Structure formats: C-alpha cells, structure tokens
Amino acid sequence: MKCKKIVSGLLASAIITTSVFTGDFMTANAATVGESMPTPVATYTFDGTLSSKEGATAKAYAKKYGAYSGDITYVAGRNAAITSDTDDKAVQLGSYGLELAEKNIGTEYTVSCWVKPDGTIANNMPVIALGYHTPELWTAISGDGGTNACKVWANDKVNNKFAWKTLGNMTIPSGEWSMVTLSQTAGTLSMYLNGNLVGTAAAPDIMNGENAAIDLGVNNWDDLFTGQMDDVSVYNRSLTATQVRYLYDGKDEETVFKEEGFTVTDELTMFQKEKRTITVTLPSAVAAENATISYQSKNEDVATVDNGTVTGVGVGETTITTSVKVGATTLTKDTTVTVESSDNLKEGIAAEYDLTQIVDGKLKDVSGRGNDAAVEGESGISFVEEDGKTVMKMASNDSYIKLPLSIMDSLTDKEQFTIETTFAKSSACGNNAWLFCLGSKVKNSGTNYMFLSPNFESKTLRAGIKDSGTEKLFGTSIQPAVDTYYTVDMVFNKGTVKLYWNGQLIKGDDGTELKSGYSIMDDVVTPGTENGILGYIGKSCWAPDKNYQGKVASFKIYDKAMTDEEIQLSDPKYQEALEKNLEDLTVADILSSNASASEVKYNLNLPATLNEINVTWTSDKPEVISEKGIVKNGAEDTTVTLTATITSGALTADKDFTFTVKALDKSELTATIEKAQALVSNPYVAADTVSAVQTAIADADKAATQSDVDKAVKKINKAMNKAEYVDAYVNPFEYINSSSYSQTATVAAGGTARVFTLPDSIKDTVTVSYASANPDIAAIDANGVVTGLKDGYASVVTTVTAKYDGFKMEYQTVVTVGTPTGKVITPEPQVINVTAAVKDATIVKGQTTQVTVTAPAGATVTYRAKGAVAVTSTGTITGKKGGTGTVYATVIVNGKKAVRKVTVNVGDISGKGTVKVKKSLKLSVKGISGKVKWSVNKKKLATISSKGVLKAKKKGKVTVTAKVGNYTMKKTITIKK
C-alpha cells in the first residue's frame, strides 16, 4: 500500500494554481492569504494506495471489529465528478478507521478533512478523534443523537477536566462533501464547517503528549464511521479563520467580504437620552483588525452615533449608515432609528405587560418601550376579576405568550436584568410546565435557555439556565400550592443567577447564588432564539412538556440586576413571610428522640434549612448543647437556650428555644457491663466472642453523653447475643459414650463398682447427680460408685445437666447385687442413633439444598445456621453470599439430645455492583474453586476479560456470568455516566 504526500514547496504552488472545491469548479485566488498560508506537516489525498510506512495505517481499536486485513477501499474523490479525473480518489471507511502517522504535534495544531457520510451519523460515532485513550485525553467530532448534528466534545482524565464535555456542535449532512476543521491554540479550540467558524471553546491540551494520535473514523469504544474521507491537512500551528476559509475555497478576506458582506442591527427603537448599540457582524473569514468600520447619522437632531453607540436626541426617525472597508472594498448598511418621547417611559423597566386584555393579538407593553408580546392560542386565554384586580388566566395547553427579542435592545446592559412575575398555578397545570423562559428554539432534546417551572414532576419549583451542553439548576423542594399566588424574582447578573420566592432567596450551587458563568447573549439568546422571539410565558423549550395553566397577575422585566434590598424591602409581607418560617418551627420539631424540652437526654434535631433558607443556631451554653444540637450530659441538670436565626439577603429573623439537659445516667450501662464481664470470664466462650465483648466494654468507657451510653449498651448486648461457645459447652452430651458409663453392673453384697465416669473435657460444662431407685439393695455416692447392700436388682440413674441451656440427660445402670431372685430389670437404650447429610455440599448464591436427618421415631429436629447460608425450620438451606456456611441439626427424643452439623460451600461473584463509563472493574468468584469462564450479555455496553476484568463502554445495565464447572453464577452491574 502506498501514500501520496504533497511536500511543502509543491503545496504552496498547489494552493495558488489548483482548485479547492465546494461543489463548483473554480480557480483559487491566491492573493496575500495564499502567500501567508503555512506549510502543512502532512497532507493525504488518497489518490492511490496507502501504506503504514508512507503515512497512515488501517486500524480497528475495538476487538469486536476484528483485525483489519486486505486492501483499503478507494472510491471516486470529491473532485472526480467535476474534473472527470479518474485518478482523484477518496478512502471509504466503515469496516476500519485510519490512524495517521503524525503524533504529538504540539500545543498548536490544525486538522482539516473533507467528509461525506454514507448516512446518518450514529450517536457517539467518531468522525475525527484526536489524542489518546489511556489515560483519556482527547477531543473528537462525534455523532450526537443520530441526527447528523455532530458534537465536538472532549475528555481530560489526566487533569480531571472536560469529562465528556460538549464544546460545540456542527451538522454534517449525509451524501455530500463537507470540510470539517479543528484548530487549537493556547487552550482555545476553534471549530469550522465548510470554512466558516461555528464556535470556540476552552479545550484540553491533547496533541502535546505521548501517543497523541490523529484518528479518522474510529476511536477506542464506539461504532466505526461509515462514509468517505478525502484531502486531509495537518498543521503544527493554529490557522486563522481567514486561512481556514482559504483552505476551503481559495478565497481571501476581501473576496469573502465582497460576496457575503456584513450585517448590522436593522432597527433601533429608543427613547430620548437613551443609548443603544449597533451590532456589526463580519464573516468569520474576515478578521476584525483588517476591517475599518465607520458610522454616520442622517439626522443628528434625532440621533447621534459614536463608534456604534447611538444616543436618542429628539423625537423622530433617522438612519444610521454603517460603512465597512476590507482591502479596497467598502460596503454599507443602514439601521433605522426611531426615537420616542420619554414622557411615557417607565424608568428602569424594559418590558411590563398589561394583563387585563388582548389588543390586536398582543399583550401591550405598558413600559412605553413598545415590546408588545404576541399571543398564541387566544381562545384559551381569558381575564378574570380577583380582589378588585384583573388577572390573566391561561387554561389551554395550546396557549402561550411570545416575548419579543426587542426586549434585549431595551436593556442598558444585556447581561444584567431582573424578571419578576406573580402567578397562581391551576390543578390542570401541565407536568414540568414552564411559567416563563428565555430561549425560543423548541426541540425534543432541549436547547439553550433560562427558565422557571412551578410544576416540576407535577409538584415542585425548579429553575435554571443551560448553554449548549450543561443545565445548571435551582433544584428546590418547594411545592407551590394550587390557586395560591406567589411572586418570583429571577435576577441575572453577568452569569450569576439569583432566585427569590416571595422575597426569600432560594439556594443555588454557591449559597444563595447559581454561578453559571454563562453569557445570556452568547449562551442563551444568540444560539437559542429564532424568528424574533426571545422566549415565552407559559411554554417550554422542551417539545414534550405541557404548557403552563393557571393565572398570571403581573409580568415585568427590569433594566438592571436588582439587589436584595430592592426586592426584599419593597414589601413588608416578605419580612412577615420570613418570620412565619420560624413560627412554624416548634419544640416538637427539634426534640428528636427526647421526651420533652424539660427532659433532654439525647442530641437535638436542629434543621439546617427551613423552606430553602439556611438556619444558623447559637447556644448560650455550647459546652452542653452545641450549635449542631450535640448534647453533652453533665453531672447535674442544666438549662440551655438555643437561638435559631434565618437570613435571606436583606431579611433576618430569630427565635429562642429553652431546654433542660438531664444529668448523665449510666446505671443501665453499669449493669450491662457486669453481665458482659461474667460472660467473658466463662472459659468456654469462643475467643472471637471474648474479643468482641471486651472491645465493646472498652469502648463504653468513652461514653460521655446519654446517646453514647445507650449506644454502648446496645453494642455490648449485641456482642453478647452473638456469643459463640466451644462444642464441649454447647453439646457436652456428644462427649458421653459407652465408655463413660455402664448399662449393667454386678457387685457382691458389701462390694462396690463405678458405673459412670464423667469425661474430663466436659467436667466444667455440666453438673452430675446420682440416684438409686432401690436404695435398700444398692446405694450410689456423689462420685458414681455403687455399693451393694443386699441381693437383688437396683436401677441407678446418673443425671447430667448442661450448664449452657439446662438440658438434662439420664443414664441408667442396672445393678445386680449378689445372687438375686425375681424379675430381671432390662436397661433402657441410652444412645440416640442420629445422622445428618446434605444433598448438595456446593451451591451458588440464591440456590437451595436440603439437610436430611435420620433419627428414631418421635424425634424433634431444629436447625440453626451460621456463615454464608440460611436454613428454614424444615432443613432447606439457601446460599446467602459467597463463602462457607454451617448448619447444626439438634435432635431430641425421649429426653435425649444429639447435635449434628453439615458444611456447605456457596459460590458467588464478588466485586462492586457499579462502574463508571470507560472505567474497569475487577470481579472474582468466591466460595468455589476452579477455572472460571467469564461472559457478559451486552457487549455494546461492556466487555470482560478471561481474568474477570470488566471494561465499561456505555451507560446501562449488564449481566455478568461466571461458570466454574457445572456451577453458573450471575451478577448485575450498573454502568453510570
């Protein structure tokens, strides 16, 4: 395979003498731009074969695509149809992607490529990917939702920045050639489509490090791009907008200016003494420093102009002519300026609507600035009288108000304003309905906007602002009541948003502010509005959302970012509302688990917020009750006063609460410790139990509050309740066998014989007593020694009592003394024949197996389990977790007891149940040994290695399966963004 490169000397000539196409054949005009174009470090025309030695390699990152083999596919190039040049080729991608030979090209770079998608570009499908994936440090052009509206996004795991952040958007149509260009310098990325700048953004430094590559149509995770690519140019410097445009069609600044011209503000409506600015927009290929701009007023008695700033002088209409000169070319545009009398102007208000009537399909702007708002769905809007005032009622999902874009021209500073409205939602208000918004482009996937919703998820208040990628919110818990009026003030001040609810500040991401960092013009109005509409009253920018239904009593936009004092001190009801929050806070809300304010033993529940307002607590005895409500019981009862203070901007209120803290009571703890010390002194308590109880006793010494004391009592009791004992203590009868006692004995009159010997291993775990049923024939002493008294038969019984649970067992010995006559006594059988077995000694988590116990008829059987299993009263064992479990079967028959145990191994997959996208998770099998075969059900979401390492690719849930021999284990893993 072979790669054709154009060297620098030839490239300059090629730019001057050959054609760069947009669809029509034309000769490029080199002019000064062509002479100043830098030399690329590499170009790829694909007009032949391609080999790794000559520039690029076929590469498939993800194993699911398989290793590429065979020849790269070539098709007719982008100029072939126009020039009939059969040698003009492009590369066809789809089953592979290309990695260019150039790497680590520096902090400044430009990569430009012609692209022709075969169809819709799938979500996250890579067009161009720059950087490296381990660790992730990249910028890419990728599909966004499968609409050919591609996103330019980035990730910087090295510096923990730009985590999948969308930097901009561009639409690359299917079936036609488009030139896409990324150019970066000093941390700023510029994005171009067909030579025109579509946006700039801060971006990570991705091409100035090891393995920083340029990949076409492929990345390390997603489906391969399907389409054609041609004429790739790579520069180790950032091209200017003029140079990128020249690379696209060979046109210099003056040529572009002649053809595309410029735009200015068409109309300005203003009042006397007001100032407004004419906005001039040049083509992106024309640098501002290369353009000379001048202004001229036709009638300075009406309006004057100074460097684009227009000042209203007298009532009337005039024209401001803007002249722009680029090179030798000068073009002009006119702005119609209307100056109105300031006599009827409401100072400081950009728009205020008459909500008593609709006139000619509009709500009248009574501020005097002429920003009338068009009404949509007029039949669903009516006007009703309430308390002597007329308000607007919106009662249809098809009704809303269109706020005009001209409102922004009525603002002295477009980045400083306040929206104020009074409203009452109805029970028919739509789910997630917005009361108002700035931003008018309605889409299924959202757009750029600032909004307020009184009905988020049909109940709560929510507000926020969004640029092209990230929504920043006031996510409140406030639930506006139906048919109840509220006043909202939303203040925008150079990127910072404040929200007031009935005069009270709502918490944002930084105290009482939401510091978005967004420009209302650059991040909302310019990209998010259309058709001269600034936004809406009663409508959302999200197409699926229902419209607002309810009443609106007032709506106005102030020409400034109002202060706390201006909003909150404007109405005494706001102070009353703040105080009402404290009135509603009672002692009962604070007591927590305490009986009353006069009997405080435990920590108090001091709320940190009340209705979204921060609460500050102070204590006159912080050493007894702290400002966080921590109670420290002393040697005597103590009275403490707590003061709750709430502050909302310029408003403040406080309230006192008095409590009596009771002296510390350790009586229950002392008694519990005595029991615990008795337990640990038992020599038959297991070592783990002794350690746990002793630790709990030691921790109890630190108890300084009543809460600590109660916790210490619970901890000690919990440790004692879990006490484990050695088998000789729990099941001492297992150690008594036929060698321990005699079922029969023969002695002469006056002779002796030992009939019972207690094993040393249980001598301290039981008590033993002896009795003779025929004491006149044979007597037995306290050591189990029988003495024959006269000829005959005697039944001697040894009673063994377990200290553990008081259970008793009787052992009978039939003693023959001398040569008796009469009926022979037959001894009762003493040993219980009991066995226990488990059907399956190995199971997996969630599976069951069964204990089978064989015992004499009439026996009762009970079960208990420990470790990795649980057991039912019928002996069904269930695996709870990976590991080993033990089940004990206790059998009692005819007053006799036997305990048998079985062991079960439980297999399970161990490891976390969650992992983030593009992260790895190590899984292993516990409880079962052997070779593990791993698999995952959704390979588009994740893959798993033979060693159990799961690599997450996309958000979702997957099921991991591990097989060990005949055992199959499954585990659900949640992959998060």
UniProtKB/TrEMBL annotation:
Recorded superkingdom: Bacteria
SMART domains (alphabetical): BID_2
InterPro entries attached to this UniProt entry: aBig_2 (IPR046780), Big_2 (IPR003343), ConA-like_dom_sf (IPR013320), Invasin/intimin_cell_adhesion (IPR008964)
Signal peptide: 1-22
Coiled-coil stretches: none
Keywords: Signal
Residue ranges of domain BIG2 in the record: 258-336, 732-813, 828-901, 903-974
Annotated Pfam families: aBig_2 (PF20578), Ig_NUP210_5th (PF26182), Laminin_G_3 (PF13385)
Name of protein: Ig-like domain-containing protein
Taxonomic source organism: Roseburia zhanii
Lineage, highest ranks first: Bacteria, Bacillati, Bacillota, Clostridia, Lachnospirales
